[in-house]
Design the sequence.
């Protein structure tokens, strides 16, 4: 099935790309979550608008990405969440939580879709988080999860 990506999907493409995927993957995952729309001749007009929006938001050069990477790695991120007595969280930390904590700590504004958690964060303590700034630049930063 041909689809037009509306957001960046890891391993598949970026917003505005027209890709061919299995029917079930598109119908059950990508389209319902808003990551893609079905490809049509009329939808082809939307591709240019999606690409224009992406150019405004994205980091265009590697130099800009390295600059933002330096800013991110210099930020101490603390995230206060509710936790039980044993240090287990009520729920887990999401990429949106990390992005807002980076902004609150004085770091640059980061899109939540660029934050990659290696595994779900469900315990208190220090954790490593990756932020994909550019195709070739990934910033690694430490996030300290503390009880609220």
Sequence:
């Amino acid at each position: 099935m041909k689809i037009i990506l509306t957001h960046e999907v890891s391993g598949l493409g970026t917003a505005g790309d027209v890709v061919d995927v299995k029917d079930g993957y598109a119908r059950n995952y990508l389209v319902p979550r808003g990551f893609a729309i079905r490809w049509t001749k009329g939808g082809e007009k939307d591709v240019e608008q999606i690409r224009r929006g992406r150019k405004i938001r994205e980091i265009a050069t590697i130099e800009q990405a390295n600059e933002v990477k330096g800013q991110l790695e210099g930020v101490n991120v603390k995230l206060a969440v509710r936790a039980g007595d044993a240090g287990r969280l009520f729920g887990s930390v999401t990429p949106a939580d990390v992005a807002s904590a980076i902004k609150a700590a004085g770091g640059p504004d980061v899109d939540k879709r660029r934050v990659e958690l290696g595994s779900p964060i469900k315990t208190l303590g220090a954790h490593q988080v990756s932020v994909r700034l550019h195709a070739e630049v990934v910033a690694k930063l430490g996030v300290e999860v503390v009880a609220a």
Residues 65-147 form a domain with the Ribosomal Protein L9; domain 2 fold (CATH 3.10.430.100). Helices lie at 23-30, 44-57, 62-73, 95-104. The mean pLDDT is 86.
